[in-house]
């Protein structure tokens, strides 16, 4: 697993939590993220695990939609 792959994986995990499951891990500091950089026996793509689910928050459909609109608005402003 590369650093870029780690960031993509975490973004996908947090996006799925928020937009599909309507919840999120409310304590996402580095101590709560476990990274297996080489994968099983050094032959895989690596893996990421989120630990300590003691702080979980749930969001309403309206909040998820509002957040999606905000992300879309920010993204539309990024011209390369």
Written description of the protein model:
This protein is α+β, with helices and mostly antiparallel strands and 80 residues long. It is 42% helix and 18% strand. The chain has a two-stranded antiparallel ribbon. Strands 2-3 form a two-stranded antiparallel sheet. The mean pLDDT is 87.
Which keywords apply here?
42% helix, alpha+beta, 2 helices, 80 residues
Structure in a nutshell:
Helices cover 42% and strands 18% of the residues. It is built from 2 helices and 4 strands.
| Helix and strand element order | HEEEEH
Radius of gyration: 15 Å
Query: Largest beta sheet: what is the strand line-up?
Result: 1-4
Q: Indicate the low-confidence ranges by residue numbers.
A: none
Helical percentage: 40-55%
Q: Structural class, please? A: alpha+beta
Number of strands: 4
**Beta-strand residue percentage:** 15-25%
């Amino acid at each position: 697993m590369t650093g870029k792959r780690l960031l993509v994986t975490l973004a996908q995990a947090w996006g799925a939590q928020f937009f599909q499951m309507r919840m999120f891990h409310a304590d996402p500091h580095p101590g709560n993220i476990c990274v297996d950089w080489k994968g099983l026996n050094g032959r895989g793509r690596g893996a990421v695990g989120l630990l300590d689910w003691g702080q979980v928050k749930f969001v309403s459909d309206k909040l998820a939609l509002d957040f999606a609109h905000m992300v879309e608005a920010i993204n539309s402003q990024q011209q390369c």
